[in-house]
Amino acid sequence: MTANGSRTSDYDFELPPELIAQHPATRREDSRLMVVHRLTGEIEHRRFTDLPGLIAPNDCLVINTTKVFRARLIGKRESGSPAEILLLRDLGHDRWEAMVSPGNKLKPGRVVEIAPEFCAEIREVTARGTRIVQLSSIEPVADAIQQHGHIPLPPYIDRDDSVADGERYQTVYANQPGSVAAPTAGLHFTPGILREIQSRGAYVSKLTLHVGAGTFKPVDVENPAEHVMHEEWYYVPDATASVINTARKTSGGKVWAVGTTSVRTLESVARDDGIVNASSGETRIFIRPPYTFRAVDRIITNFHLPRSTLIMLVAAFAGYELTMSAYQTAIREKYRFYSYGDAMAVMD
Does domain 8-68+166-347 have CATH number 3.40.50.300? Predict the structure, then answer.
């Protein structure tokens, strides 16, 4: 017999389109917060401003300081037809790995003009279907990307990016450019909420994981074990590892991971005994049921897409049945879903 949560189709659910948040809440902290208690199965409906009251003295909140860069380049081919390039990874010397559209037209040797004196030449096709592109500009390429690039909003946000997205599709603590998607659980935090958490005797520690486009890739095989994760770069500083280890092992505190990116980073660098090692590198970790968590005690997250690696991670932590029940409750209670949507806190 196949266990529930072991197949990709187990994570299908019907979501009314009107529940997909197309814009952020008026204020970051205005989001709702579903609190899921994994030991009892109880579900509470709160506001995000209630979060500091759930975090105890000596607990440690771990945030991802990655910053979304203007990775979406819109231009035209030599024929004058439109083209789009999504920068994924800086390879040095103004060479990037990128996703392109239309893929069947942008073959090696083709050039896309993004702006006068700013263009991208397709150099090669990678084994996974992305492209290696060479950017060139009369000004420094980094400046050209910042000036002409667009915020890469997720595909389920059905509108062009706006000036407001330049601020709201970033966390208030983002300071390490490199992501093509925001660590969206962090979008709800304000400086005031972070100060309140610290004033209660809890710690706030930082790490970085640069989110790649693979975060939006659905699992398209029925056996999740066959899904190929894209690598993502992370960095856990010495100070962060020290605070987490002290909080858990010495002070009896709990580690609250803000977002699946923080969860994946911590679990990538944790030993079997739960000690977190400071390190940097690339991770392809795919957390799904069954999984034994080593470094994370609580999770703050948004509501994710069906059949995604992200909802599978939540199910590994909260339990499959409780996770899917919480999602059905969220739909019934008209929570807002996805990047600009509401939040969930999973605790004991």
Answer: no
Mean pLDDT by 10 residues, the chain (348 residues): 84 97 97 98 98 98 98 96 96 96 94 97 94 97 97 95 97 97 98 98 98 84 94 97 94 96 98 97 96 98 97 98 98 98 98
Phi then psi for residue 223, to 5 deg, are: -95, 110
Residue 1: the pLDDT is 41
From residue 161, how far is each of 70, 115, 211, 217 by CA, in Å? 10, 18, 18, 20
> By the 8 A CB rule, do 97 and 205 touch?
no
Pick the CATH number of 72-148 from 3.40.720.10, 3.40.50.300, 2.60.40.1120, 2.40.10.240: 2.40.10.240
Burial class (CB in 10 A: 0-12, 13-18, 19+), 310: buried
Question: How many CB atoms are closer than 10 A to CB 144?
Answer: 22
pLDDT the model gives residue 126: 94
Instruction: Identify which of 281, 320, 284, 313 has the alpha carbon closest to the alpha carbon of residue 296.
Output: 313
